[in-house]
Amino acid sequence: MSESELQTMVADYLRFQYPDVMFHSDFGSGIKLTPGQASKQKRQNGGKRAWPDMFIAEPKMQIQYAIVFGLFIELKKDGTRLTKRTGEWATEHIAEQADVLDRLRFRGYEAQFAVGFDEAKNLIDKYLGGKS
């Protein structure tokens, strides 16, 4: 399954299981774009190429009355290795994505990688307090 197909499956899951939850999915993520399209998308995303694939716009109250403003998910297809055996990020791009996720967490968002549909579903259910 491609990353684009995974993203569609996760979007379908959200629509059916959490119909009142607002979310946004980055259409350009995980698909091949022409150089012109890639340049335009990068400009529209603040010049960054490592922006997460999905955002769930559902704030949550967490421990000690801290508010988490929403959930960002960086989706990876099944079998993707995020790190090498040494503990380093597997690729420069994954390292860039991890940095963006860290920066989003610092700003009050939940932000995680999810490898495969089951991991994405479990992350969403845990965050939204649903069917985990």
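Second entry:
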Amino acid sequence: MKEKKSKPSVLIVDDEEQVLTALRRTLQSEGYRIITTISPKEVLDLIHRERVDLLISDIDMGDESGIDLIASARAWYPDVIRILLTGNANLETALDAINSGEVFRYLTKPWDAQVIRDTVRDALSRLDEHRLLATADR
């Protein structure tokens, strides 16, 4: 009997409710389990309690840095793929994000809906490949 594969889960964190709503709307037709929060402080706890495959984080959330958040997520949950969104793209910030959090992609706001869908699909596909390789190595 074939095991039923669970829906990939995507955790989105942004301090702006309207961004969370727009991203949820963009991704809902893709069949993902979508979790959202406006609280960066809640993210690691959510990843601990829920099975999270992909984290999408805003880079600037008031008192909290998305770069620090993804660096912590990487340290505690290295299997969770990370994507950063920013409204103020610059090379230094992008390099910092890539170096400290090993982000899969660094995307700018406003985003193109198809680019977001394709990026999430690519990230989850890569995660599936890594999990298959890890299983094959056992």
